[in-house]
Known about the structure:
Number of domains: 1
Radius of gyration: 17 Å
Number of helices: 4
Strand content: under 5%
Mean pLDDT: 82
Largest sheet: none
Helix content: 55-70%
Distance between the termini: 7 Å
Structural class: mainly alpha
Amino acid sequence: MNPLQSISICFSKFASYRGRACRSEYWWFYLFVFLPYQWALDGIFDRFFIIDEGDYILFTFYLIFSLGTLIPGLAVSVRRFHDIGKSGWNHLWWFTLIGIIPVLIWLCREGTKEVNRFGDPIDLNTFS
């Protein structure tokens, strides 16, 4: 799955918490989300004490982008957990300090090859 397919799938399944998401779908989408966040935050913090019109534009972009990607990001995370056979509620382990490690390990794991309780496995050949 290429990055454009991943991003379009994540936005087309905007608030769908059913089904599964393969690793490439999840990680391409999060790369797409991370880069603008990083760019906006760098710009805001570099000029933290200088207030000019550019800061407001940058902060507005950051706010709109983060609100626009919040629900799709959460949905693709839940679907990623479904791909490895775990409940989406396991995503809440992010809020504990020690829970970050298992969540990252789970997100990096390969999905189950067989049908699990969340649906059929994703065939990446259909995206070629």
